[in-house]
Design brief:
The complex is a heterodimer. By secondary structure, chain A is mainly alpha-helical. A three-stranded antiparallel sheet of chain B has the order 1-2-3, covered by helices on one side. Classes of the chains: A mainly alpha, B mainly alpha.
Chain lengths: ~150, ~250
């Protein structure tokens, strides 16, 4: 039962919401399936790395790295902009709950809780950005090298 | 083919890509490659999220510049993908201008998902994220109803040309207001889960992704402007919720 509540239900939620976001961004056909798989991948990597680290900021980093690699590879195979997969896959990693709690602490005037939550939220945002940043930069260098060899 | 014809067409393709949610470097690269494929020299392209400037020189060295301002931003990654393929195709097989323009029109008139499907998508997002953030079924139902009303508010206010910041404040304010009273009247259980679930529909996914990708590609102006946009949306969400949580404190 615990397995069901902790793992299966969130994964189903991620799948369903990724499909819905794909519809909102007008992604069609088989690409919708691939984008949804990216969202699921983000959450599975997050869950698999659970318990390795003290807090879950590195888990967000690993999730971001996984979906960036996934979208960049698919983009090169299908000749599709990587944004199409990345923008859907990244949504399960958006820390909606933490942003909300940061704001509530701000309204209630709990300065210490606010600062703590804010640092944590910024940590997550930074981890996701860093993951995407590193992977995409490496892939850009690879394409650059390939382009250079082809033209020689 | 005249220089001005291919200049116009290439800028059009770039302009459409940008307005449908492509990154800056993709737009600049596409325009550059198309112009290059048709033998234009001294191609200079500069794009920011709000405009594109393209300059080429004709055979006498006379510069020709085309500027396009982009005011409407939508998110239609399907069209970005198709335009991207079109620009690859143009570079490879160099079709005539009439053919290209026909192709562009065909892509721009591609169907989007019907309104009812989009509303259902919002409903589903609200429902699944309320569950995702450990809300109960009642919370999820409340979040899904609120999320679908958010879509209606967005459509209505966009028809009145509302700016994005105001729109976000109204949507998040409505969410917090209805969540407070849904819990007050016993329809839902956890106010915070309802609010978080419904507000996930407002997450600017494309803006965030493009912001990062623009920074990576070295387009700092574009990256900054998108970062400001994302931060303004986040601030709008926070302000909308904060106002309601403060005004209706006694009902919480």
């Amino acid at each position: 039962m615990e397995f069901f509540v902790d793992i299966i239900v969130p994964c189903l939620c991620v799948i369903v919401s990724s499909v819905a976001f794909s519809v909102e961004f007008n992604i069609r056909g088989f690409k919708l399936v691939l984008a949804t798989a990216g969202g699921l991948l983000a959450w599975i990597v997050y869950l698999l790395s659970n318990g390795i680290y003290v807090n879950d900021i590195p888990q967000y980093f690993l999730g971001a790295v996984a979906i960036s690699i996934y979208s960049e590879i698919l983009a090169r195979i299908n000749k599709v902009p990587a944004t199409l997969y990345l923008s859907i896959s990244i949504i399960p990693l958006v820390p909606g709950g933490d942003i909300y709690r940061t704001m509530v602490a701000f309204i209630n005037g709990q300065a210490d809780v606010f600062v703590e939550k804010l640092m944590y939220t910024f940590g997550i945002a930074g981890a996701i950005a860093l993951g995407v940043f590193g992977v995409t930069s490496i892939f850009r260098m690879i394409s650059y090298v390939r382009l250079k060899y082809r033209s020689v | 083919m005249q220089t001005f014809e291919i200049l116009n067409t290439a800028t059009d393709i770039g302009c459409h890509m940008l307005s449908q949610g492509a990154e800056i470097y993709r737009v600049e690269e596409s325009i550059k490659r198309i112009l290059n494929a048709y033998g234009q020299k001294d191609i200079q392209v500069y794009a920011v999220p709000g405009s594109i400037v393209v300059t080429v020189s004709d055979e006498f060295g006379m510069p020709l510049t085309k500027t396009k301002r982009i005011t409407n931003h939508e998110t239609n990654l399907d069209k970005v993908d198709k335009l991207n393929n079109l620009s690859r195709h143009i570079c490879k097989s160099k079709p005539g201008i009439k053919q290209i323009n026909a192709q562009i029109n065909l892509i721009m008139s591609r169907k989007t998902y019907p309104l009812i499907v989009q509303i259902i998508a919002y409903l589903v997002i609200g429902f699944s994220f309320a569950i995702f953030f450990e809300g109960s079924l009642a919370d999820a139902f409340a979040a899904s109803i609120i999320a679908s009303i958010i879509k209606l508010i967005q459509i209505g206010l966009l028809k009145l040309d509302a700016n994005e910041f105001f729109l976000t404040i109204i949507c998040s304010g409505f969410t917090a207001f209805s969540a407070i009273f849904a819990v007050h009247f016993g329809i839902a259980e956890n106010m915070d889960k309802v609010i978080i679930g419904a507000l996930m529909t407002l997450v600017p996914g494309i803006t965030l992704t493009n912001c990062m990708r623009d920074f990576i590609a070295g387009d700092f102006m574009a990256g900054l402007s998108r970062m400001v946009e994302a931060l303004l949306i986040a601030a709008g969400i926070a302000i909308g919720v904060a106002i309601n949580l403060t005004l209706f404190q006694s009902f919480i």
